[in-house]
Amino acid sequence: MADELMLEIVTPERLAFSDVVEEVTLPGGEGEFGVLVGHVPFLSSIRIGELNYTKDHKKTYYLVGEGYAEVTGLKATVLVESIEAASSIIVEEAKRDKESAEARLAGMDKENPDYGKIKKSLDMAETRIKVSEKV
Description:
Structural class: alpha+beta
Radius of gyration: 16 Å
CATH class of the largest domain: Mainly Beta
CATH superfamily of the largest domain: F0F1 ATP synthase delta/epsilon subunit, N-terminal
Strand order of the largest sheet: 2-1-9-8-5
């Protein structure tokens, strides 16, 4: 057990994943980072992006929302707003969401109270499309 990395991914609704993996790559607030067993302990914010892990020499991809990660030498705990498996993403829906967000942002002043929320929707849609291509 000392040479295994435990990965737990938690959303507000559920424990989305809990298993031993070979490595995990996360979209950190300061940039993407990878975690292997024995990694130095640290905390990081998580931005909207791609999370992937390798188990049995096979990569699995997810879209994750914002959150936090705690890494220890033997465990990575990821707390995120949302998680979506690349294999379950409906690309046409993601493209419609992207177009809708772009249309709503067109000409909108950045000072508008809705700007940040719509920009976040656009980021999620664009990342959803990118992650869906990994399958």
